[in-house]
């Protein structure tokens, strides 16, 4: 009987998530170009002497050598990372901008959730995720627009794209004013279920622009329409995923700036009063 | 499956982080064969740690009284505050003997993938401490990884408008290491943070 042999294979991947394991190891969740989503152990990467720990931080595009069974026909599902080279480490640019970091986290979690089965190749999702992280790191567009564009296109790859140019129920072409998440997008007056939302026409235009990559229209959208669009996209995604994304409520949509303003104008308590309170 | 007390002990030990079923079984049988005085000492230590140890009301480091040793020490400067993720980071910095200011323990780092946002950390308490006006410099000593850097970015964004100097621990080459073995990110950071000699 042939024994279990760990093959060495090579692929490029995006680092989606890192989790601590034992004293100094990490489990790295990767979205690879040819082998789909994988979980692999990176040994000793939390030690300061690690040769490649810095390359295995979230949001990096890396070239890996992995030990394991690429087809998953035998043995453990956990692979082992033996070598890493950085192709483009987007994390470095993203951590210096808090709203972009939170948007990148939501992209990484969505990519993980859209690949429920390990080792199932998903080249288009890999390319979409790589493009999303690159766009966030480049900073040419607002982070919330990049995130919403990624979510809309990711849902399109999963087969759940919201209907925007025809009724989601009867297929009547045209831009309809009501939007129903359970129905699957815009609905005509005849098919409109109770409780359907009535977003502004500009919001639906923005959604269509983000889904099709019309960045000129998307960049010109006003803040209220961007917020409404984000709400509809998030509701549509979480309806189909059946479970909320943990990172989505933490996406910074400009609130940090407001909090900073509040902190700036907050009255400073008298040190003597604080000392009295502490006593 | 074992019976009664020994299985209960294996189950409880198996719930500890990093202890698998085999390790739990090995520890349980070691306890069974150990000297009763040693086992009593272990049980007392476990009980005492839950009864006596609490969080310092000022910095949220672990303490055995209302305030920790650092917060009670009048010789420590109140002008410099060092922000760390966990109490064990305080111990690591204290070992250097280089820092004579005070600490603030956040209780983790911002990690949206794990559902940890700013409101889940002791950031509000930090801002309240800074509001007293006695702090001149805030040193951000969160881990040099993605979550730690993002937390430092967030804190800098919140604190800089308050007129307090915000600094970040330097990253670079480990003492005693060879340059040729350093990865490009660490070496790049070392170049960014180079100093005049």
TrEMBL record, chain A:
Stated name of the protein? DNA repair protein RecO
Q: What does this protein do?
A: Involved in DNA repair and RecF pathway recombination.
Say if the entry is tagged with keyword Phosphoprotein: no
- The scientific name of the source species is Plantactinospora mayteni
What HAMAP family does the annotation carry?
A: RecO
Q: Which family does it belong to?
A: Belongs to the RecO family.
- Tell me the superkingdom of the source: Bacteria
Answer whether the UniProt record assigns the keyword Metal-binding to this protein: no
- Using the UniProt annotation, give all residue ranges assigned to the region (Disordered): 250-279
- Looking at the record, the residues that make up the DNA replication/recombination mediator RecO N-terminal domain are 8-90
Give UniProt keywords alphabetically: DNA damage, DNA recombination, DNA repair
Q: Which Pfam families match?
A: RecO_C (PF02565), RecO_N (PF11967)
Q: Where is the composition biased (Basic and acidic residues)?
A: 255-279
Automatic annotation (TrEMBL), chain B:
Annotated ranges, domain Toprim: 79-174
Domain of life, per lineage: Bacteria
Q: Does the keyword Iron-sulfur apply?
A: no
Keywords for the protein's UniProt record, in alphabetical order: DNA damage, DNA recombination, DNA repair, Metal-binding, Zinc, Zinc-finger
Q: Give positions of the C4-type zinc fingers.
A: 56-71
* Keyword Hydrolase assigned: no
User: Which InterPro entries does this one have?
Assistant: DNA_Rcmb_RecR, Rcmb_RecR, Rcmb_RecR_Znf, TOPRIM_dom, TOPRIM_RecR
A Pfam family this chain is assigned to: Toprim_4
The protein's role, per its UniProt record = May play a role in DNA repair. It seems to be involved in an RecBC-independent recombinational process of DNA repair. It may act with RecF and RecO.
Q: Which family does it belong to?
A: Belongs to the RecR family.
Report the protein name in the record.
Recombination protein RecR
Q: What is the lineage of its organism?
A: Bacteria, Bacillati, Actinomycetota, Actinomycetes, Micromonosporales
């Amino acid at each position: 009987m042939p024994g279990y042999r760990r093959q060495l294979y090579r692929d490029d991947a995006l680092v989606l998530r890192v989790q601590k394991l034992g004293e100094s190891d990490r489990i790295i969740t990767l979205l690879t170009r040819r082998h789909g989503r994988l979980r692999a152990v990176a040994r000793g990467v939390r030690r300061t002497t690690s040769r490649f720990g810095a390359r295995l931080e979230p949001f990096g595009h890396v070239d890996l050598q992995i030990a394991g069974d690429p087809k998953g026909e035998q043995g453990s599902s956990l692979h082992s990372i033996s070598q890493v080279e950085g192709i483009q480490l987007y994390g470095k640019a993203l951590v210096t901008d808090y709203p972009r970091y939170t948007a990148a986290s939501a992209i990484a979690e969505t990519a993980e959730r859209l690949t429920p089965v390990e080792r199932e190749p998903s080249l288009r999702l890999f390319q979409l995720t790589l493009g999303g992280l690159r766009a966030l790191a480049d900073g040419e567009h607002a982070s919330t627009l990049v995130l919403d564009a990624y979510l809309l296109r990711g849902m399109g790859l999963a087969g759940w794209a919201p209907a925007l140019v025809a009724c989601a129920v009867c297929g009547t072409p045209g831009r309809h004013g009501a939007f129903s998440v359970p129905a699957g997008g815009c609905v005509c007056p005849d098919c409109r279920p109770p409780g359907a939302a009535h977003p502004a026409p500009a919001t639906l235009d923005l959604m269509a622009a983000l889904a099709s990559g019309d960045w000129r229209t998307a960049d010109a959208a006003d803040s209220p329409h961007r917020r409404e669009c984000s709400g509809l996209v998030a509701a549509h995604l979480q309806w189909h995923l059946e479970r909320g994304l943990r990172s989505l409520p933490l996406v910074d949509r400009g609130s940090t700036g407001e909090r900073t303003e509040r902190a700036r104008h907050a009255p400073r308590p008298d040190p003597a009063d604080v000392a009295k309170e502490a006593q | 499956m074992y019976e009664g007390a020994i299985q209960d002990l294996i189950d409880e030990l198996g719930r500890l982080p990093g202890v698998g079923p085999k390790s739990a079984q090995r520890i349980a049988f070691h306890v069974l064969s150990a000297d009763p005085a040693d086992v009593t000492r272990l049980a007392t230590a476990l009980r005492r740690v839950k009864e006596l140890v609490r969080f310092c009301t000022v910095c949220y480091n672990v303490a055995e009284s209302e305030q920790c040793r650092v917060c009670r020490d009048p010789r420590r400067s109140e002008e410099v505050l060092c922000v760390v993720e966990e109490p064990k980071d305080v111990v690591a910095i204290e070992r250097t003997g280089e820092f004579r200011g005070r600490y603030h323990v956040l209780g983790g780092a911002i990690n949206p993938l794990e559902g940890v946002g700013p409101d889940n950390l002791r950031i509000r308490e930090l801002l309240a401490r800074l509001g007293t006006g006695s702090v001149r410099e805030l040193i951000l000593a969160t881990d040099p990884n993605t979550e730690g850097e993002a937390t430092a970015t967030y804190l800098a964004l919140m604190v800089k408008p308050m007129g307090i100097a915000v600094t970040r621990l330097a990253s670079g080459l480990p003492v005693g290491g060879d340059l040729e073995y350093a990865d490009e990110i660490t070496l790049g950071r070392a170049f960014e943070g180079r100093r005049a000699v």
